[in-house]
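Working notes for the structural subgroup meeting. M.R. asked for a predicted model of this chain before we commit to crystallization trials. I am recording the input and output together here so anyone reviewing the notebook later can reproduce the run.

Input as submitted:
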Amino acid sequence: MLTIDLVRHMKAKNRRKWTAPHDERPLSKLGLRQASFHAAAMLEGDPIVAIYSSPAVRCPTTIRPVAERLGIEVQIDQLLAETDGYAEPAGW
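Returned structure, recorded in token form:
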């Protein structure tokens, strides 16, 4: 059986105050602490064989503590990026 855990990023810096590109908005100090606690909880579950992340800075930062403890690389996948919408399928 394959189990897929979907994890939202931990607490990020304030979206309204952030002036740089949205994908560069990092985790807050609280978010970094949350990521560490989250890693401990994830490691108590089923074995993890792969980790995929959105390219937004706060996302791999959230899951990196798990990856580091397991000695595996976070695989960044553009398909997991936040978007304002999707392209209309060809022929529609």
